[in-house]
Write a structure and sequence with these properties.
Strand content: 25-35%
CATH superfamily: Alpha-ketoglutarate-dependent dioxygenase AlkB-like
Distance between the termini: 26 Å
InterPro entries: Alkb, AlkB-like, AlkB-like_sf, Oxoglu/Fe-dep_dioxygenase_dom
Order of helices and strands: EHEEEHEEEEEEEE
Bound molecules: 2-oxoglutaric acid, fe (ii) ion
Shape: globular
Keywords: Dioxygenase, Iron, Metal-binding, Oxidoreductase
Number of domains: 1
Number of strands: 12
Protein name: Alpha-ketoglutarate-dependent dioxygenase AlkB
Oligomer: single chain
CATH class: Mainly Beta
GO molecular function: broad specificity oxidative DNA demethylase activity; ferrous iron binding; oxidative RNA demethylase activity
Helix content: 10-25%
Cofactor: Fe(2+)
Strand order of the largest sheet: 1-10-7-12-5-2
Number of helices: 2
């Protein structure tokens, strides 16, 4: 990670924290290589919603627990649903970033990997499958810029925030249960991933 503490930018949503360029371009390249090597052990797959609709993103996980969705619902589990193998470890660079940015006393035990390509998006939702809903959720973006949408937990007006390659953001405190999603990617905004697309890494204390 970067040697200095990333600069935090103000946001209009209390508890939604944003650190533009938390990872400089060298750190982004290094992290992407670590992600690719983890994905060799835990290949991306396309989950379905509990209603049976395929996600437009492909997913995998790192860490003791991984978030999965299927006909049985949403949950965390210790093994890849297709290979049955344990998830590979969370890259140390991400654990260090979690400590530096969140200051949370315990490490994350789950890192969801989302790959967005083409028209992939993610509908508005809350992250609420974790045991302790006071622990922050930290998200790191690599590749094409995402048009991220965020609004209050109870519903109501949302705002959009652009998340570029290397940006980190967190749902904390009053924004922990904020509704959020990804409307679309800005195609061609980054050259980090050959062929375009975006990798999002979401660190959580799940279990
Ligand atoms: O891709 C993103 O920036 C958000 C991902 C997300 O909200 C999730 O996986 O729960
Ligand atoms: Fe989410």
């Amino acid at each position: 990670m970067s040697p200095v503490l990333p600069r935090e930018a103000p946001t209009a949503v209390p508890g939604f924290r944003l650190w533009p360029q938390a990872l400089d371009s060298a750190a982004q390249v290094a992290l992407l290589a670590e992600v690719r090597s983890g994905l060799e052990a835990a290949p991306l797959y396309r989950p379905v919603t509990p209603g049976g609709r395929p996600f437009s993103v492909r997913m995998s996980n790192f860490g003791p627990l991984g978030w999965v969705s299927d006909r049985g619902g949403y949950r965390y589990q210790p093994a890849h649903p297709e290979t049955g193998a344990p998830w590979p470890p969370i890259p140390p660079r991400l654990l260090a970033l979690w400590d530096a940015l969140t200051g949370w006393p315990s490490p994350p035990d789950a890192c969801l990997v989302n790959l967005y390509q083409g028209e992939a998006r993610m509908g508005l939702h809350q992250d609420r499958d974790e045991r302790d809903l006071t622990a922050p959720v930290l998200s790191v973006s690599l590749g094409d810029t995402a048009v991220f949408r965020i609004g209050p937990a109870e519903g109501g007006p949302t705002r959009t925030v652009r998340l570029a390659s290397g940006d980190a953001c967190a749902l904390t405190g009053p924004a922990r249960l904020a509704r959020h999603g990804v409307d679309r990617l800005l195609a061609g905004s980054s050259r980090l991933l050959p062929g375009g697309g975006r990798v999002n890494l979401t660190l959580r204390v799940a279990g």
